[in-house]
Amino acid sequence: MLINEITPLTPLWGDEKPEAAKGAGFENMFGGIFRSAIDNVKETDADKTQLQYLMATGQLDNPAELSLASSKYEMSVSLLVQLRNRAVEAYNEIMRISL
Question: Exposure winner among 8, 29, 45, 55, fewest CB in 10 A?
Answer without folding.
Answer: 8
